[in-house]
Description:
The chain is mainly alpha-helical. Helix content is 69%, strand content 2%. The protein has helices spanning 2-20, 23-48, 58-63, 65-76, 78-81, 83-86, 92-107, 112-124, 152-168, 184-191, 193-209, 214-221, 223-228, 232-247, 252-276, 287-294, 303-309, 315-329, 334-339, 349-368, 385-392, 397-435; strands at 130-134, 137-141.
Amino acid sequence: MNKILAFLEKYILPPISKLAEVKYLRAVRDGIVAILPLIIVGSFFLLLGQLPVDAIDPKWLAANPFWANIILWYKTKIGILLIPYRLTIKLMALYASFTIGYYLAKAYKLDAISTSVLSGICFIMTQKPEMATIADKKVWFIKMDYLGGTGLIAAILCAFFAVEVARLFNKDKFKIKMPEGVPPSVVTAFTALLPATVIMTITWLIADVFNIDIVGGILKIFSPLIYLGDTLWAVIIINIVLALIWLGGIHGASVVNAVFITVWMGYFDENTAAQAAGQVIPHITTLPFYQWFVWIGGSGATLGLVLLMLFSRSKHVKRIGEISILPGICNINEPIIYGLPIVMNPILALPFIFVPVITGTISYFALKLNLLHRLCSMPPWTLPAPFGAFFATLFDWRAVVLVLINIVIAMMLYYPFLKEYEKTLLTKEENETTAD
């Protein structure tokens, strides 16, 4: 194990560390995080619009007309309850085009606000307006099909393109010179004039003049990645890579999320749309799948380890467990990763790598076999896992059982390795006591 970690430290971790600092990946990560509050609130409204009232016994309702009328009233209001969901989750790619452009522009020290507007208009111009007749009036509209998770990859590429064009025209020879005394806001507006012209003209030519479906074409290019993202192999590979990055001291979740979050959120968007339409939910490995069933307590499924640490004979292990239990319940495990530590720890490295692989595999097959409701809501990630899984599966009690089973499995797998690590610490602590 020491040789393996030495190999990782020398050959694998340096390029991964550089990857984590790539401006594009950081912008994607920060841009998606910026819109998470909208997605979380939209998920709450989806929950409100999907209360399991159909499961109530009709005979009981017939005997209780007051509650029957309330449920009937609720069903008539479902469309209204789902409006915030449709204007948040179903527009996530549109919002992300602005926020990703904003953070990438900041990384290049461009004017972030004006450049984020260029990113947004670049993406929105990939959408083809259509005409329809409503109430005997002809109106133009844009379909929402590509504005949600399905269009996230296109939104990201549009943000990259817009920022790079703005960066090109930020050079002195391209800037429009303004006389002294002109307000800075006016100068900024005219600075964005040339890049806006180039971005909008190119996008218009491709999407409208040459009639090329930009988003659809991008989806075809990335279709192998999108397919891989919803397989068991993806669950296994992602968790191994995530753990190896963490073991080198790098924030593994940040790197992995930056690469895969667009795919996961695309699946999540399709799941929510299917749920709202009363159709079969298509995907398993959405972001909530990893949050609630795999990374219980944080990367490495460390909540089970923290629970074991509370009963350790080692003062250091027990103290770190006491410090880490509340954050661990809320899926924050930096205190244990860096405090125990797990980073570069040859004893705890193996369970840290393979525990989430095992719990992820179990959870994948549980959902694949439809033993519980698939995930189509995104509660705040800091909720305790049983509650988060319960809400994410739209109140399926079996999700709570699966979470508890995974925690027990994690405890069983971590136990022998923690005991081995505990022995080394106990010997050290005894030697220190003797020396005193």
